[in-house]
């Protein structure tokens, strides 16, 4: 991957952003992808709903900054790299050299490896920031849609991360429906509805083909998603990508009753639910090999079926967060789970 581009001065760009946001001018750069310029065929203004907030766009955003790999690749899958000012993404999210969007990664500026900040958005002259709660947006960091609005910058929140209450819990839709919702909504915002509809149709079929091979519920292996953590495991609930990936692949997600996306549970819960398989989320400073070594040597897990039978399966971070890689992840996990059933 390329080094982050050097930032411009925030002060000068703050002045340049006055009056920007959802109504930034369109330079017709979408024609090559079959997009319609602002106002063409009466497409604009368009009003969409995102995490319960309705927003009207007079023109399609032209300088989008994204945060993290899944969010960035949603834009790439829609063919919107020419609408992007850059992306922020750590370099521990796997190899992007073999993905279908390799050319887009080479074209769009990589703005930083650390946290997305208001300064990064300003320096990039962003008119829209596409991120999520705990995927760039956070009250603790001060980077929120409300804060960006004061700077004249619009926001789009990843649907997987929508807050569902006052306690910080996230998720309002089944995970794959969240992906389809974002593709469809962004298709409307950018005037690429046909492209979005084609992707959703393709992904639904891919998932349905894998799900059709799943066994009856009573015969499905139970699966626990392990992200990281020693004292307490960080895992996924019913509103994070792994829930639908596990379920559609033919597994029984042991944390399906957890009404949150990504959160912490206790090891005693994992032991009590005795998963047949543990899926490791491969990212971060701790390698998948080290995570597996910990699971296999952690005494409280010694009698858990997945540990006893060495049923540890590794998946990439970008497969498990909301992203256009989710449907292929369902297919891959389904193949592994069928192998387990065949092996007894």
Automatic annotation (TrEMBL):
List the residue ranges forming a coiled coil, or say none.
Answer: none
Domain called Fe/B12 periplasmic-binding: residue spans: 63-344
Q: Which UniProt keywords apply?
A: Signal
Q: Which CDD domains match?
A: TroA_a
Checking InterPro entries in the record gives: ABC_Transporter_SBP, ABC_transptr_periplasmic_BD
Under the heading Gene3D superfamilies, the entry gives: Nitrogenase molybdenum iron protein domain
A Pfam family per the record: Peripla_BP_2
Quick one: signal sequence residues? Answer: 1-21
Q: Which PANTHER family match?
A: IRON(III) DICITRATE-BINDING PROTEIN, VITAMIN B12-BINDING PROTEIN
Identify its protein family. Answer: Belongs to the bacterial solute-binding protein 8 family.
Q: What is this protein called?
A: ABC transporter solute-binding protein YclQ
Which species does this protein come from? Streptomyces platensis
């Amino acid at each position: 991957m390329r080094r982050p581009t050097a930032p411009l001065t925030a002060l000068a760009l703050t002045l340049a952003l006055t009056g920007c946001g959802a109504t930034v001018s369109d330079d017709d750069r979408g024609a090559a992808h079959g997009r319609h310029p602002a106002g063409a065929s009466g497409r604009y203004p368009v009003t969409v709903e995102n995490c319960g907030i309705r927003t009207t766009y007079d023109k399609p955003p032209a300088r989008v900054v994204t945060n993290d790999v899944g969010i960035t690749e949603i834009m790439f899958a829609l063919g919107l790299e020419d609408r992007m000012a850059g992306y922020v993404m750590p370099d521990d999210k796997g190899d992007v050299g073999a993905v279908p969007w390799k050319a887009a990664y080479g074209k769009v500026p990589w703005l930083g490896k650390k946290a997305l900040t208001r300064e990064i958005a300003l320096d990039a002259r962003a008119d829209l920031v596409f991120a999520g709660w705990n995927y760039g947006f956070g009250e603790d960091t001060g980077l929120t849609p409300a804060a960006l609005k004061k700077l004249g910058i619009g926001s789009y929140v990843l649907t997987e991360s929508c807050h569902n209450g006052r306690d910080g819990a996230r998720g309002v839709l089944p995970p794959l429906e969240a992906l389809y919702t974002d593709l469809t909504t962004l298709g409307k915002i950018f005037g690429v509805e046909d492209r979005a509809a084609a992707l959703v149709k393709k992904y639904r079929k891919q998932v349905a083909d894998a799900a059709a091979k799943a066994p009856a519920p009573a015969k499905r292996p139970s699966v626990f998603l392990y992200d990281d953590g020693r004292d307490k495991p960080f895992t996924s609930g019913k509103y994070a990508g792994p829930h639908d990936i596990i379920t559609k692949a033919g597994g029984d997600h042991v944390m399906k009753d957890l009404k949150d996306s990504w959160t912490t549970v206790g090891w005693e819960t994992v032991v009590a639910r005795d998963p047949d398989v543990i899926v490791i989320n491969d990212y971060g400073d701790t390698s998948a090999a080290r995570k597996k070594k910990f699971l296999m040597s952690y005494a409280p897990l010694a009698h858990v079926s997945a540990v006893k039978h060495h049923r540890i399966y590794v998946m990439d971070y970008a497969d498990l967060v909301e992203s256009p890689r989710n449907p292929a992840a369902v297919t891959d996990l389904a193949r592994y789970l069928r192998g387990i059933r065949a092996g007894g």
